Amino acid sequence: MFDARLERELWPGERVLWSQGPDPQGEMAARLSYASRKAHEAMLDSLSMSNIAGVVLSPIVAALGWLRHVWQRDISYAVTTRRLITFHGAEFNWTVLSHHLEPIIIWRKGQVGSLLFPYESDRKLDMRFDGIHSPDAVRELALNAKTMAGEE
């Protein structure tokens, strides 16, 4: 069974191949990873103000961003026949599967780990599935889906 929000987002002819939230053992890692990415984005936004206030306030902005997002529990990931999709609460992100390089398992503890899907031309578009069960199986499924999508 997959996240009901996915049904609203699917393109015509697109099918969900896999969908899962973080494993209970990896939930905290997923939340920490997401909060850290959002805090980093907030800090960069603050630094982009190009003034002393932005520089002075950037650590505070990063800390507040981290605290705001670390409590996000509603996380889910999906691999479809065409895309990689993440939900973090109401935040919905996707990228086309065919534009990613080979997925990399970036950490593992037993059967739980995290997958990085490097984007071929822009690291800002990398996707991560953190704290998922059986990252090897998801990696293989994504590789097969990418091959199938390339054949269409």
Architecture overview:
It is a single chain. Helices cover 41% and strands 28% of the residues. With 152 residues, it is of the alpha+beta class. It has one domain: Pleckstrin-homology domain (PH domain)/Phosphotyrosine-binding domain (PTB) (PH-domain like, Roll). The protein has a four-stranded antiparallel sheet with strand order 1-2-3-4, covered by helices on one side. It has a three-stranded antiparallel sheet with strand order 5-6-7. Strand 2 and strand 3 form a beta hairpin. Helix 2 packs antiparallel against helix 3. The longest helix is centred in the N-terminal third of the chain and has 21 residues.
Summarize the SSE layout with pairings.
Layout: H1 4-9, E1 16-20, H2 27-47, H3 52-70, E2 75-80, E3 83-88, E4 91-96, E5 104-109, E6 112-117, E7 127-133, H4 135-151
Antiparallel strand pairs: 1-2, 2-3, 3-4, 5-6, 6-7
Short structural description:
This protein is α+β, with helices and mostly antiparallel strands and 152 residues long. The protein has helices spanning 4-9, 27-47, 52-70, 135-151; strands spanning 16-20, 75-80, 83-88, 91-96, 104-109, 112-117, 127-133.
